[in-house]
Design a protein that fits this description.
The chain is mainly alpha-helical and about 240 residues long. The chain has 10 helices and 2 strands. The protein has 2 domains: about 60 residues, Homeodomain-like (Arc Repressor Mutant, subunit A), CATH 1.10.10.60; about 140 residues, Tetracycline Repressor, domain 2. Strand 1 and strand 2 form a beta hairpin. Helix 3 crosses helix 6.
């Protein structure tokens, strides 16, 4: 996909020699232009903010340029096409994962819990993050930094490269799946939407729904972390 990324495409955010802050209302964005220097990082941060407000479908070079106070074509000096723009946004997401880098080398459990909590925070703050993490390869310095830190935490306690890869995949898959459910069906259940408990005749099923409604997202995530840690400890005989 080349430079023919059109304004109507549902992807994009921008930065330029002029940036603008935006307030989103029922009639669309109200912007106040503030001049700033264009860079790939500025474009990525602006694009991420736009996707937070309007989703990936609402991301276009035209909107991105408007927020930054420049013509859409100016953005192509910093992002070459749609894929490159999404890579820049993904790079920004990886950079926002606040890993617990001060955890002692031997404490893989504390590192795993802290790393997954930080990952969950980014997934919740940025609704498009789940799709971007799941659909795009990690190929930037920020992404490699997160991956290297994560693999090394397991290698420092004796796991080989293959085991470290499997452990990482297992832990990340839990976080991705949990947040997808947490922000989707579980949110509806907790809000009392979509399920009429009185209509459920099976007492076991009804009790499950009631427990889900009573349990907070944070508590459910922490219980899942307990299961992840217990599983990794048992599978790899970790301390």
């Amino acid at each position: 996909m080349g430079r023919g990324f059109r304004d109507t495409d549902g992807v994009g955010e921008g930065a330029g020699t002029g940036a603008s802050s935006a307030r989103w209302g029922s009639l669309g964005p109200v912007t106040t232009t503030v001049r700033t220097a264009l860079s790939r990082d500025v474009i990525a941060r602006t694009a991420l903010a736009l996707t937070d407000e309007q989703g990936l479908a609402g991301l276009s070079m035209r909107k991105l340029g408007g927020l930054l106070g420049v013509e859409a074509m100016s953005l192509y000096h910093y992002v070459t096409n749609k894929d490159d723009l999404l890579d820049a946004v993904l790079d920004q997401l990886f950079a926002e994962i606040d890993l617990p880098r001060d955890v002692p080398d031997h404490d893989w459990e504390l590192a795993t819990r802290g790393g997954l909590r930080a990952f969950r925070a980014v997934l919740i703050e940025h609704p498009a993050a789940r799709e971007l993490f799941a659909s795009r390869p990690a190929k930037s310095p920020a992404a490699f930094d997160v991956l290297a830190w994560s693999y090394q935490r397991f290698q420092l306690v004796g796991l080989d490269e293959g085991q470290s890869c499997h452990a990482f995949h297992f832990a990340v898959s839990f976080a991705m799946g949990h947040v997808a459910t947490e922000m989707g069906t579980m949110a509806l259940i907790r809000d009392g939407q979509g399920v009429d408990l009185e209509a459920i005749k099976d007492l076991t099923v009804r009790s499950v729904f009631m427990e889900n409604r009573a349990c907070s997202s944070e508590e459910m995530f922490e219980r899942g972390l307990d299961a992840v840690v217990a599983g990794l400890r048992s599978l790899y005989d970790l301390p």
